[in-house]
Amino acid sequence: MTDTSPVAAKPQTLVWSNPWHNLAFGFGSGLMPKAPGTWGSLVALPFVPLWQLLPGWGYLLMLGLTMLFGVWLCGKVARELGVHDHEGIVWDEFVGIWITFWLVPEGWYWLLLGFVVFRVMDIAKPWPISWVDRHIHGGVGIMLDDVLAGVAAWAVMQGLVSLLV
């Protein structure tokens, strides 16, 4: 769910002057005029090989911490912008794509495949993701639809890993 109110349409100065806004807007990737969620997911992708160096439990711990942080961060920035969920807030895409790659083998082809699977889930929003997107608000709502898209993409990736590896 996006908001195109005048306040929501002009976060550019805050993104470059406020570190919380910069982080929520994916280091500026959320300012892209077309498909900010896709750009945010792309900017989050180079972190995946670093997270994959962690043991499985460490990666899972990182996911939990970034989700909790994201609830606070996305809620704070949305309130400061005076909107429900500005499309430029892409920290939720960062966490969603990181979920996609938990326990997925390393390799550029897995990164490419996981990126596509996550974007399909995030854009298509199959039930219950679509319900969450419409009915849950605040930081939890901003994060939860992308967390669920990440979990759905993770399940698809685990199926592909079991078939192809």
Characterization of the model:
- With 165 residues, this protein is an all-alpha fold.
- The protein has one domain.
- The chain has helices at 12-17, 19-24, 36-44, 48-51, 56-81, 91-100, 108-124, 129-135, 138-164.
- Helix 3 packs across helix 6 (91-100) and helix 6 runs parallel beside helix 9 (138-164).
Succession of helices and strands: HHHHHHHHH
Specify Rg, calculated over alpha carbons: 15 Å
Distance between the termini: 37 Å
Number of helices: 9
Reconstruct the topology from this structure:
Layout: H1 12-17, H2 19-24, H3 36-44, H4 48-51, H5 56-81, H6 91-100, H7 108-124, H8 129-135, H9 138-164
Short description, anyone?
This protein has one domain (12-164).
Entry keywords:
cell membrane; disordered N terminus; 165 residues; membrane; mainly alpha
